[in-house]
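Lab meeting minutes (informal)
Scribe: AK
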Amino acid sequence: MALRTLLFLITNLAVVLTISLILNLLTAIGLLPPDLPLLPLLVGSFVWGVLGAWIALQFSAESAKRMMGIQLVGQGGGAAERWLHDTVAGLAQKAGLPMPEVGIYGSPEWNAFATGPSPKRALVAVSTGILKGMPPEELEAVLAHEMSHVSNGDMVTMTLLQGVINAFVMFLSRAVLFLLPRGDREDGRGMAPPPTMLLIWPLEILLGILGSLITAWFSRHREFRADAGAARLTTPGAMVGALQSLGQVENLQDPRDEPTLATLKINEPPGFLRLFASHPPLEARIRALQQAAGQTKAW
């Protein structure tokens, strides 16, 4: 996890340096005025964007506990709580991961999620609906899916990716102001006319929407990887069965859901809105598992 974070931060630094070189080149050949403070804006945007996302990630598990009303479970408690704790412990050992915190939150929806800044500080939680309603073999596959998110470092990568996109949104929306024609104040200092300030908010919205296409694509990609990881920790049939069961159950919406949580939720909007979906269609996920299982048998 530390190596993943280091490599991602180095990549972010490389992006900043690359853009800086491009800006310097455009200035040198006369396409940009030499007095535009774009480089400080670029550095500041990346600091705020990435650092803000990183800080949010550090408190993600605690925020989830408070927001969702999660009750942590241990080896004590009722039979369902003990089963949940022992199943996660077995999956963590099998995956070579530290034991995460395990919790339950009250909700009729069938859902599970993982969050936290590192495997040592991870949280895996399930709703009371899925704990009571899903067969144990399939629920174990769901828990393996969430443990795969932890093993793959999806929470870190997703958060930092969102931070980079936020940085670009901040930078580009404000850089437009520097490129627009400037008026003159009475003291002779140039400034953007007041109406151009109103461009920041529409530009941030537009760029944010475009950026969400990238985060949604990565989110869908990570679900396939987590499904494959769950199939390895349990069996492909158990994960396929879990997805089929999810497709047969009405996915009641919990108003406390947050997009920063790595969830198992079914998310399949119609038409072009699928480009913004955080999860692939269940049919595609099932098909990918079945194809992988078939290739393994053939091999």
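Next up, CB showed the second protein from the same session:
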Amino acid sequence: MAEDLERRCGTCARFVRVVETIDDTGEVKRKGECLLGVWPSPLYETSTCSQWVRRGDFKARPAPAPSRERGPRAAGGETTTTREPVTLALPEDLLEMDANEFRRVLRYVIRDELGVGEVPMAGKWKGGEVVLKPGSEGLQEKRIPIDALFHKIVMIRDKLRVLEQKINSNPKLADDEKVQMQQYVTGCYGSLTTFNVLFADKDDQFSGQKGDE
């Protein structure tokens, strides 16, 4: 079954809080949530997106050995009290993340909870212009404010994400059709990686398949 879910949510490291349900035909379906919040819940294991990462690729850092705190000593040098270390149970997926991946997830969660959707542009480009210079002499060049261009690029990115969501949630599309259409969307992301230099935050950039960037 894992092979059938290659590059889908069912084998993604960010697919968490999975619940199994059985429909009227007896088919078992698994749905859960995305740690990055790429799409709203529920997500099904056959869904796809460009942020897929194979489960197990994130290596957990070894936890430090718990230290035992000793209390005051009674007469004779014996310890009267011992405070046991508090054990905090964390989801397995969080334990598998490195620091950078955890910050990425936390950033997405905060933005989602606060409703902050603004994407910042790299400071060095603010106030700049894109100059389109004709190849023939005597023709007037065209100047476009980078802020306006960046806004249009972000709108394209957001509309592509909506398109991904509609593809994944469309009940009339077969799984192989969803994967095929998702590949086209991912190809669009790859073509737009040229504009990644404009984003202040790397996590907001376009991410395509290797070879598209």
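CB comment: The chain has two domains: 1-65+91-117, 120-213.
No objections, moving on.
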